[in-house]
Amino acid sequence: MCTVRLARGLTALFVLVLLGGCENTSSLPPYWGGDVETYKKRPHFRAFVLSGRGATSSAGYSWVSSQESADEAIKLALDRCESMPIGYVCKVVYLGDIDVWGMSKEELEHAKEVYTENPAATNDDL
Fold it and tell me: For residues 86 and 63, is the Cβ–Cβ distance under 8 A?
């Protein structure tokens, strides 16, 4: 079970889940938690992208699956997110089952290599 002070709102809850602070996303509203859970069940290669503003009413997100490569998954998910009229930078949150939120460019490249070699990889494999 994951709890967050209500004063911190949906953004704190969403970030907690994305950063691994919660084991499941069942306490999230369907438009976030449901999509993360659905995403995680989809075929590889896949990527989940969120606007830089986070989980707010003006946030945007996109995810894709069944792509030919990790690079294609990232590119398509970013393109879809950035095409939304939200005006914020979109960032990769998940690459497969690897939580890449907040990783440096070099760390993301390493995660991409690991994911490409092993689509079932998690953060433990980095």
Answer: no
Tens of pLDDT along the chain (126 residues) come to: 222 222 223 333 344 344 333 333 333 334 445 577 788 889 999 998 887 655 444 567 788 999 999 999 999 999 988 887 767 788 898 999 999 988 999 999 999 999 999 999 999 999
Task: Report d(CA 70, CA 105) in Å as an integer.
Answer: 15
Consecutive H or E run containing 93 = strand 90-95
DSSP for 11-62 reads HHHHHHHHTTSSS--TTS-IIIIIHHHHHHHSPSS-EEEEETT-SSTT--EE
What is the distance, to the nearest Å, from the Cα of residue 37 to the centroid of all Cα atoms in its chain? 11
Residues 6+ apart with CB under 8 A from 22: 2, 13, 16
Residues 17, 22, 24, 30, CA torsion sign: negative
